[in-house]
Amino acid sequence: MRRGISRSSLVIVSLALALSLILVYFAAMGGLGGHPSASIVGIGQFIVNNTYNVFNRTYWAGSPEAVTSIIWDYRGFDTIFETTVLFAAVMAALLLVPGGIRGRIQGSGKDEGLTLIVKTASKIISCIVVVLALNLALRGYISPGGGFAGGSSYAIAPLLLIAGLSVFYLVRLGYRLSRAIGLRTLGLVGLVVVSSLPLLYMGYIIQNQAKPGSMFPGYPVFLGPLYLGGSLIYMNVFEFLVVSMEFIIIFIAMFLLDRGCGGSA
Amino acid sequence: MIYPLLLLCFFSTAGMISSYLAIREKDLLRAIALSAVQSVAFALLYAVLLAPDILLVYLAVGLGIYPIILIYTVKKTRRYEE
Amino acid sequence: MLSWILVLYVYLTLFVTGGIAVYGVVAKRNIVKKIIALTIFNDAVNTVAIFIGYRLIPRPLPPIMPTIHPNRQIYSAFISSSVDPLPQALVITAIVIGVAVTCFLAFLAIRLYDRFGTTDYQEIKRLVRGGKR
To answer: Which domain, by its residues, includes C111?
Structure first.
């Protein structure tokens, strides 16, 4: 390993710094659309005007949260394809496990893990994390959160249990690869059903509220005293199922990878 | 108007320094810990930029999923670079 | 004037972080270090996208209306001082795609180590072309 600064690395560093300064100059001259200015672009302004416009309901999305209504209503196709990319990546990772993914995770009967304080604390905190994740997923159309935040936060709970207790405790709780794959398929089927239901009424695909030119009346926004957010609540719940189960599949597959490669290093 | 920009400058500088230290570190476990520090700096950046949705996703992903998967990869391969 | 300089300084630090991450992907030989650098690059680019959508007024608001039953005043205050929600929605998509790709790359790294016995990229290239182990 050479010590000191060689000439070639000095050349590379100075070139990189010069390139960064040139990029900042272009940004200063308005290349990235003006510096953060006092007004936002036209599409953003249109969405902010119409996302909860109770006075003129032509283009409204039924939810006071602009980001969730963009993800699931105004740009719903992007999210559908992103779910497909996540699905394909997890499939490819499962194909890399040597010897296939069939088989059970054998475990010893005794209680493994660390001391009693760590085990109790892990159980309590993982319950709190699960409740937080469900809250984020179900209230995604009123407050910040949604399917992705809920699913990613849910995946922290089994990790805590693996760290404090062992992975066999998860198996005893009932986490299996086949059940995770089944729940993920349920979530994907739910997404497809909620997106294609307007087609029965000659509407558009992934349609949330009534639009000019389609006969679908829209998913209900206010049901008596309840406030449902159109189709956003159903989409959030199904996306929560998909994302959380995909992370569970990755963690179980990592353990199968461990067993197939001849034990731990 | 100045104070949010000052906070942004501070957090982005912290992110830059910790990412530089993470890349030139030879011990891979320390590099993962430094990349978690960089994730914290960027999460605070998202909080100042008024993006609460992204903050929730990024906290769970950058501080929970990435270090776990990378620490497992380091455990299965070598800990020290070269 | 001072706000102009501070905005350019934030752009400079974000571009330099991206440059450091690209240097890490290209010049380091260990595969796990390359994966770490790739995650840093993802974060820097996403932050640039969100920073473009920020609104530089005295009191900006997040893009969430604070009540379900708004009146005209709340509504007009919201539409005149909220930040841009469109880059935030696209960045959420980009973060989740980055997580998927990184998980797949980590699995690939483990399998490469089992097959070739090393995590050095140059060594693996040499072994693939038929060199001796």
So the answer is: 2-128
Helix axes A232-260, A116-138, angle to 10 degrees: 140
- For residues C80-88, average pLDDT: 92
- Sign of the alpha-carbon dihedral angle for A233, A234, A239, A245: positive
Predicted confidence (pLDDT) at residue A262 exceeds the cutoff of 50: no
In this structure, how many other beta carbons lie within 10 angstroms of the beta carbon of residue A99? 11
- Per the CB < 8 A criterion, the answer to whether C102 and C38 are in contact is yes
Q: Quote the number of domains for chain B.
A: 1
H or E segment and range at residue B21? helix B2-23
In a domain, B26, yes or no: yes
- The answer to whether A261 and C114 are in contact (CB under 8 A) is yes
Q: How far apart are CA A252 and CA A248, in angstroms?
A: 6
CB pairs under 8 A between B and C: 136
**Which of A36, A45, A79 is opposite residue C7, by nearest beta carbon?**
A36
Q: Does residue B81 lie within any of the structural domains?
A: no
B21-B25-B29 Cα angle (round to 5): 110
Examine residue B82 and state whether it is found in any structural domain, yes or no: no
Q: Compare CB distances from A265 to B60, B76, B82 and report the shortest one's residue.
A: B76
Numbers of helices and strands, H then E, in chain B: 4, 0
In tens, the pLDDT along C108-132 reads 999 989 888 888 888 888 888 887 6
Chain C hits for B12, Cβ within 8 Å? 10, 13-14, 17, 47
Of A56, A59, A87, A82, whose CA–CA distance to A71 is shortest? A82
Cβ within 8 Å of residue C114, ≥6 positions away: A98, A261
Give CA–CA dist A206/A68, Å, rounded. 14
In sequence order, the 6+-apart residues with CB closer than 8 A to the CB of C37 are B23, C21, C22, C23, C24, C25, C28
Residue A134, pLDDT > 80, answer yes
| CATH code for the domain in which residue C104 is found | 1.10.287.3510
pLDDT above 70 covers what percent of chain A?
Answer: 90
**If contacts are CB pairs under 8 Å, which of residues 33-52 in chain C contact chain B?**
33, 35-37, 39-40, 43-44, 46-47, 50-51
Domain span at B13: 2-76
Q: Is residue C80 part of a domain?
A: yes
| pTM of this structure | 0.90
Q: How many structural domains is chain C composed of?
A: 1
Residues of chain B predicted below pLDDT 70: none
